[in-house]
């Protein structure tokens, strides 16, 4: 279980995220919505460690991650996909995934420079990388440099890296951003596939309400950095505070 307690960040006199307390259970996909500037991506950055909190805590499985940098939070089980892809463009597709798999394992240098262990580790890492690429339908592209891939395939590869890291929590920040109409369903199908594993927790920042309605088990709404709604999708989308704050529709009589 992922939990934030009174999570807050201030930039000078501006409170970008204001004492947000929320629990995210395994087996659920929570969509985080709100108007531009509501603090959604900043909240993500606080959870994953890209920004240090002014106050509050981030806990995973009861462990306090608040003082850890982003790299340590990744090793603890927080997997983050960004609006812009975060890959090694000059390496091949396979090499990107193999490096992610390797990051979760003890390297051969920990046991000394034994040639047999180095070879067997390499074979094991490569086999696991092949399995992951097959699961995201990218085996045929394994030898291509990442820089040559279209944007949609780079987003697919980023999901493969999260799978390789064996994350407990998958965090997607506008996963379909910049994708064409034909590319977007591919990444959404991968998220549906991840949802089938009920041991994983998924957080999704997304502006497209049709995507939110289809994928989310729960919606939380941020407005001016404050949590203003939390519940089942139909209930939250229909609430007056969301209609006004997110959709710009006032329920008050004219």
Structure characterization notes:
The protein is an alpha/beta fold. It has a single domain, classed as P-loop containing nucleotide triphosphate hydrolases (Rossmann fold, 3-Layer(aba) Sandwich), CATH 3.40.50.300. The strands form two sheets. Strands 6-7-8-3-9-10 form a six-stranded mixed beta sheet, with helices on both faces. A four-stranded antiparallel beta sheet has the order 2-1-4-5, covered by helices on one side. Strand 7, helix 6 and strand 8 form a beta-alpha-beta unit. About 5% of the residues have low confidence.
Helical proportion, percent range:
25-40%
Q: What is the average of the pLDDT values?
A: 85
With strands numbered from the N-terminus, the spatial order across the biggest sheet is 6-7-8-3-9-10
Instruction: Name the quaternary structure.
Output: single chain
Enumerate the spans where pLDDT stays under 50 for 5 or more consecutive residues.
107-119
The CATH class name reads Alpha Beta
Please state roughly what percent of the residues sit in beta strands, choosing from under 5%, 5-15%, 15-25%, 25-35%, 35-45% or over 45%: 15-25%
Structural class by sheet pairing and helices: alpha/beta
Order of helices and strands: EEEHEEHEHHHEHEHEEHH
| Largest sheet: number of strands, sense, barrel closure | 6 strands, mixed
CATH superfamily: P-loop containing nucleotide triphosphate hydrolases
Q: State the end-to-end CA separation.
A: 45 Å
Shape descriptor reads: globular
